[in-house]
Amino acid sequence: MTFLPYAVAAWLFVIGLYGIVTSRDLVHQIICLSVVQSSTYVLLLAIGFRTGGAAPIFIDIPVGRAAVDPVVQALCLTDVVVGATVSALLLAIAVQIHKRTGSLDPERLRESFG
Known about the structure:
Elements: H1 4-22, H2 26-48, H3 70-101, H4 106-113
């Protein structure tokens, strides 16, 4: 088992979280949230990976041979769909906020709505 995928997942999470915290634009924050979401893809794939494992199609695989976990692959695919949906929804909300206020700066929005 290698440490590299877990380090990449942690690095993506930290970089995305840093971008969310320091950003001055809603669209940039949404993009950084997508980067954080991609860290979960890497983490799920690292958990389900097996060295020398075959694809989880068991017709041609002899009994006892290692196979990649298909549940983790399904979770990763679900994670991709949920991430794309959340990003699309947040971008639609950002467009409506820009139409109504003329700004995407969170500080100006706090003053407008606060």
